[in-house]
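Structure, all two chains, one model.
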Amino acid sequence: MLRVENLHVSYGAVKAIKGISLKVNDGEIVSLIGANGAGKTTVLHTITGLVQPEDGIIEYNEINLQAVAPNKIVTLGLAHVPEGRHVFTQMTVTENLLMGAHYRKDRNKIEGDLEVVYESFPRLKERSRQFAGTLSGGEQQMLAMGRAMMSKPKLVVMDEPSMGLSPLLVKEVFNIIKTMHDNGITVLLVEQNAKMALSISDRAYVLETGKITMSGNASDLLLDERIKKAYLGA
Amino acid sequence: MMNKNTKLKGYLVNTVALAVLLMAFLILNANFKTPFYSVVFIPSLWQISYLIILAASLNLVLGFLGQLSLGHCGFMAIGAYTAALLSLYFERAGIFTDKKAPVFIVSILVSLLAGGLLAAIVGIIVGIPALRLKGDYLAIITLGFGMIICNVINNLPFAGMEGLSKGSAAASLYKTGLGFGNTLKTKYAWVAIVITILCLAAMFMFIRSRFGRAIESIRDDEIAASASGINVSLYKVGTFVYSAFFAGIAGGLFACCNSSLSTASFAFTNGSILNSTFIVVMVVVGGMGSLTGSMLSAVLMFLLNYVIKNVIKASGMPLFVQNLFKYPMLVYAIVLIIVIMFKPKGILGTREFSLVNTIEYIKGKLGKKAVKEGGSK
C-alpha cells in the first residue's frame, strides 16, 4: 500500500534520513520505533509532503506522493495524525471533527460518520461543544485521531500518539488504534514507546540516526536481545 | 452543529430587525431637521460606517486567519482614489450632471465597487508573496506596503501629491461626485447604512461558511489544517483579498465623507484615528475573532475620538486635563491598556452578539420569572 525506497532527507547541511526503505501492506499495523532524534517524525513528514526529500521514492497505491500537494494527500485516503496533538484549540470538538471531513464531497454522509466517531470516543461526545484547547492531553489525542477518522482514510500515519500521556491513557489510545485497525484501516505508527507499539503491530522497523538497523515481525523484535537492551529497558 | 432551522430563523430575525431599523431611520431622516442632526449626527454616521467596515474586514485577517497585517490603510487608499477618480470620470463623461438624479447613485455605487475590486487585485499581488511570511515579518512587509502605496499614489500624474486636482485640493473631491456636503450626506445617509449592512452580511456569511471554518483552523494550527486537506496558502491569500476588497469599499466611503483627498490621511505617521495601527487597536479592543465586537469597538473608538476632539475643549475642564487630551494617542493607549487588563480577549472575545440568542435568553429569563411568580402565589 505504501512503499518508501531509498529515502534521503536533509535539513540544510544536516542529513536526517540516510537512505531508508520501508513498506506497509494492506491491513497491517506497522510501527517505526527509535530514540529521540532518530528521524521518525521526519520520515512521516516526508510521506505527508510537509518536508521535501532529497532523493528517493514514496509511493502510495502506485501514486507518486511527491507529486501531490500536502493538502491533496488526505483526499487519497491517507490521513496524518501529527505529533503533539495538533488540534484546533479555538474551535469546538465538533468543529474539529468536521474539519477532518472538510475535503469530502459526500456532505450528507458526514453527519452519520460524526455519530460513528462519537460512538468510538464517548468522552468526546460529552465535550462536543467545548473548545478543543480546554480538553486534557488524552482527550486531545483522541480528538486528533477522531479527526483523522472523519476523513475516511485507508491508511493512517500516526506520530507518537502516546507522547506525554499517563500509562492508563496510553493503553486506551492503543486500544483505539486496534479498533481502527479492526475496522479495516491500515496503520503506520511512529513511536518511542517500543513495548506498546510492538505489542499491537504486525511488523516493525527500528530507526537509528537516519538508518534502519533492524526490521521484522513485531513479535520477534519484542524478544530480540538488542531491542530489549536499547528500548525495553530489560 | 447549528441546525438548519435555527440558522434560517436567525437570518429571518436579523433581516426583519434590520429592515425595521432602516425604515425607522428613513422616517426619522425625512422629518428631523435640527442643525445638530445634519451637522454632527449624519457626518458621524458616515464616518462610523466606514470605520465599522474597516475594523470588521481587518478582523477577518487578524482575528479569524490569525495574521498580523499593518497595511490595511493602503487598501483603503487604493479604494478611495479609485472611487474618486472613477466618479470624476463619470462626471466628465456627462453620465450624471445632477447629484439628485438616480443615475448619480448608480455611478457612485459603481465607483465604490471598482475601488473594492482594485484593492482586491492589489491584495492578490501583495498577498501571494507576503503571506509566505508569518508574524513579525508579515507585519513589517504589510507595513511597508502601506507606506509604498502612499508614495505610488503621490507620484501618479493623474492622482498627485496635492490631492486630486493638484493645488486646489480643498475643492477637488466635490468636483468628482464623491465628497458629499452635509445636505447630500443627509439625503444619501441610507447609502452608507445599506453598504455597511451588505458588507457585514457578506463577511458574516463568509465566516459562517465552511471557508470560515477552514481559515479558523489555519489560525489554530497550520500543520493540522494542511493534514485535513486545506490548501493553506490559497485560503490565506483568499481571505487577505476578501478583506482588502472591503477595505477598498471603506476607502470609497471615506472619500465620500471628505472634501479633499490626500495620501497623508492614510499615512502610517498620521496621528488621527485613521491609520493602520489604529484599526488594529480597534480589532483588538473589540475582540479578535468577533465581527460584532469590531462593530462595537469602531463605534466606541469613534465616540472617544469625537469626545477628545470636540467635547473636551469646549467643556471648560481644568487646564491639565485639556493638555492631556492634546495627545490623543496617549489616551487611546490608556484605553487599550485598560481594556486588555480587564478583558484580555477584547470586549466580546471570540463571541458574536446574536439577536436570536438574546431574544431566547430574555424569553428564558421571563419564563423563569413567570414560573417563580406562579410558584409564590
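Residues 1-32 of chain B form one domain.
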